[in-house]
Structure prediction request, 708 residues.
Amino acid sequence: MVLGIRPPQGPALVGLVRMLPSIAIYAFSFVFLGIYWNSHHHLFQAARRVNGRILWANLHFLFWLSLMPLAAVWLGENYAAPVPTAVYGALMLMAGVASRLLLRAIVSAEGPDSAIAKAVGRDRKGLVSVLFCLFGVGLALVQPWAADALFVLVAAMWFVPDLRMEKALHTALPENA
Amino acid sequence: MVLGIRPPQGPALVGLVRMLPSIAIYAFSFVFLGIYWNSHHHLFQAARRVNGRILWANLHFLFWLSLMPLAAVWLGENYAAPVPTAVYGALMLMAGVASRLLLRAIVSAEGPDSAIAKAVGRDRKGLVSVLFCLFGVGLALVQPWAADALFVLVAAMWFVPDLRMEKALHTALPENA
Amino acid sequence: MVLGIRPPQGPALVGLVRMLPSIAIYAFSFVFLGIYWNSHHHLFQAARRVNGRILWANLHFLFWLSLMPLAAVWLGENYAAPVPTAVYGALMLMAGVASRLLLRAIVSAEGPDSAIAKAVGRDRKGLVSVLFCLFGVGLALVQPWAADALFVLVAAMWFVPDLRMEKALHTALPENA
Amino acid sequence: MVLGIRPPQGPALVGLVRMLPSIAIYAFSFVFLGIYWNSHHHLFQAARRVNGRILWANLHFLFWLSLMPLAAVWLGENYAAPVPTAVYGALMLMAGVASRLLLRAIVSAEGPDSAIAKAVGRDRKGLVSVLFCLFGVGLALVQPWAADALFVLVAAMWFVPDLRMEKALHTALPENA
Prediction:
């Protein structure tokens, strides 16, 4: 992902300083992708069945994530600009929507009494994230910095790994007892 | 794959609008690669033997897919132009041909009575795709938009995951019974 | 990683000669990443439990490594310049700190009597590396070449694969006896 | 690897024609890497023990391969020029040398009576390849096209997958009987 960021021209400190927004947005994107990476690690470990619907739900989810580096580079070069901020937030939003669809596909394959279904529950936090991102996209067009703060809040909600699921699965699956 | 796409210069909305063809072609390529990814997921899970011919048939197939990002970026910057459209279609065509060769190599290693051989059958849909792409390449040189429509049709034929194979394999292999 | 390096313009030998610093720094980075790759190969093979803390410690570690290609390209185009040298050293420093945090997270999950805990011990070499890099970052701002020599020394300390750990684990785990 | 190749400017056929050398060299590099990929597939499947020496021999081998895309892009933009041709050949040479060192490290870990040791034998073809590449590097500086022909010959020697090893291993290892 870092490949899209261009190193500064020349060796001066000012070049590095000018890159700081790009690096901050890269770091945020790294954490954002890491949140999904870690929670999917738990998810796919616990999933017993994979069908066509899950494969496509997963690809749909990856599609939005795959656009993130492009949006991050654009935003890094134009930080605090309304349109790039809104586009970045829209990708976060779509990733959240796609993640919910993926969860639903997995739960549907595992059955309503499976450990995953119980661990996921109603996924209220996922719904709240999606609503916050939706609001953030609109906000970005008038107050980019306020939208940034909202996006950071969404990531912070998840940064503590999904302990709820980790615990529920550890209780449900005997191998970890 | 998205790395080849350059973000817009400057923060204006017009830059994003100008990128829409590139993003549309990226999305189409993503779906196209996803179709192969999903069907190969089934295929390699069911394959019991790997030999030199299969390895090379697979690399030959990957060669054509690996050129797709380059063609997608070129087409994205020159959408509706005859030559880039024809080149993109030619890669779809070659991927289809290579996929048929790969299927044949796997079926030949598994034997005519294997679950894979029965699931694949005569692969008529694969043959139709190849013929459509062949026609599309010629069409692109005179009517690029009509060729685009044909290429979308080919992808749509496969978008519903290869349920036929999934079902046949699930029936044939006891572990999924 | 090599993708960030641009090939010379034109076919002349002088273009190749001008690239030598970039290639030397690329080679050094390759060895540096290889040291971590090999030691983590041992580590994760021996680790029995993975929890949220380990996943995040690993991502934190990978974050600093992921910035290395960018710093390597920048330094390659401005070798012996103080700021790029200091930035490169700072990434080595942060990778070392993050690696120690990762080690601690794994040891904490495995327990103080595990083979890993005994093999890692107090990780004095890790601490020395971190201190050397810290000093190197400051040195880079006044004597870049001296800092380079120090960074090479740090890598050389590890280049001989972590035989101590390899041996300890081979003794502790019966499968290798 | 294809990412380093830039798509043509503008939609004209002439842009595509100008890219043909780049694509030809890309295709050759793809086959070259494929040869190693396939033979290592056999090798690592049969290897029972991995130690520090093997890990470093493998990284050393990958280092030279990782420089190939850069050399391929440079040669594609300056085909038939002496220095880029010689550099490309030098990477083929170093990959061959590194591959022999890797083979020796694996054979040494497995022991002289192992299936791998017998399958590899004295690796005369490997030695011949290295000598041909060495000669080709010198030849490139005076007759680039003749060197190209020699490099194609070396690849052709291996293109037929290493059936000798495949057969020997299949005979030696009961699971494939």
